[in-house]
Amino acid sequence: MLIQAWKTRLIVACLMLLCAPAANGEDQPLWEAGLGFTILDFADYRGSDERSSFLLPAPYLIYRGDLLKIDRDRVRGLFFEYERVSLQLSVSGSVPVNSSDNAARQGMPDLDPTLEIGPSLEMRLYRSTNEDLTVDLRLPVRTVVATDLRHSHNVGWVFAPLITVDLSGQFAGAKWKTGLALGPLFGDKRYHNYFYGVAPEYATAQRSAYVAESGYAGGQVIGSLSRRYQRMWVGAFVRWDSVSNAVFQASSLVRQDNTLTAGIAVVWRLRQSSQRVEARD
């Protein structure tokens, strides 16, 4: 289980930090690959008061295909695109939690890592003339699968609308790119109970039995900063999560309303495609 947890944390680290941005309209290689390291610090789950920090090796991958794109912050599959509206593939996830290492979950089943996948309707709300400032609305709906890579089961659905603002060039300083994203989170009953439900057999004097409902799950704000050098990319992010007023806030597994996740990565490009394409958001 420990080895599997490390593998999963590494995968999540890659998804969160290791994909570098390409400047809009620039001629770039179709793919790039490399290696580096990342430092991550995060809560066990949203609402947890216990944290973990890791220094991990970090594979680096960018792909700029017409239908599949792997970039700074996500893996995207393009279903259709028309002017300022597109339908894309949205992917996210969560890390595993060993309940024996978390005081709030002592004696409860471990939390397997989750994979979230589903469509995202995306709308370009604004793009400046020189493309230094863009504002988008993302409306992803994702089904959630919990898996230890031997067994898997569906644990519900999430809806995570986001307003994203990306700055580069004159707005963010030469060669730096910054991003800001914020929005509410919603989940169904199964998803909320996977993380915050307490079955009667796991109730204790300090942990009451609890059944979560579907609905509002709090909000998040994400900030990022990155810069691309000749053969190196550096990036950092911080994410603030709040479960204040969430439908599961009364669960005894919620130990605090606000949690922070942060990370930094440095990667070196080792190989790249000879084929070049125009790189655009």
Please give a quick description of this structure.
The chain contains two helices and 15 strands. With 281 residues, the chain is mainly beta. The strands form two sheets. Strands 2, 3, 4, 5, 6, 7, 8, 9, 10, 11, 12, 13 and 14 form a 13-stranded antiparallel sheet that branches.
Report what the structure shows:
- With 281 residues, the protein is mainly beta.
- The chain has one domain (2-279): Outer membrane phospholipase (ompla), Chain C (Beta Barrel), CATH 2.40.230.
- It is 9% helix and 54% strand.
- It is built from two helices and 15 strands.
- It has helices at 2-17, 189-196, and strands at 26-29, 31-43, 51-64, 68-70, 75-82, 85-94, 114-127, 133-147, 152-159, 162-168, 176-187, 215-228, 232-242, 258-272, 276-279.
- The strands form two sheets. Strands 2, 3, 4, 5, 6, 7, 8, 9, 10, 11, 12, 13 and 14 form a 13-stranded antiparallel beta sheet that branches.
- The radius of gyration is 19 Å and the shape is globular.
- Mean pLDDT is 84; it is low at 1-24.
Low-confidence stretches: 1-24
Global outline: globular
Please give the largest β-sheet.
Answer: 13 strands, antiparallel
- Portion in beta strands: over 45%
Please state the average pLDDT score: 84
C-alpha termini separation: 38 Å
CATH class: Mainly Beta
Q: Structural class of the helices, strands and pairings?
A: mainly beta
Number of helices: 2
Per-chain topology:
Elements: H1 2-17, E1 26-29, E2 31-43, E3 51-64, E4 68-70, E5 75-82, E6 85-94, E7 114-127, E8 133-147, E9 152-159, E10 162-168, E11 176-187, H2 189-196, E12 215-228, E13 232-242, E14 258-272, E15 276-279
Antiparallel strand pairs: 1-15, 2-3, 2-14, 3-4, 4-5, 5-6, 6-7, 7-8, 8-9, 8-10, 9-11, 10-11, 11-12, 12-13, 13-14
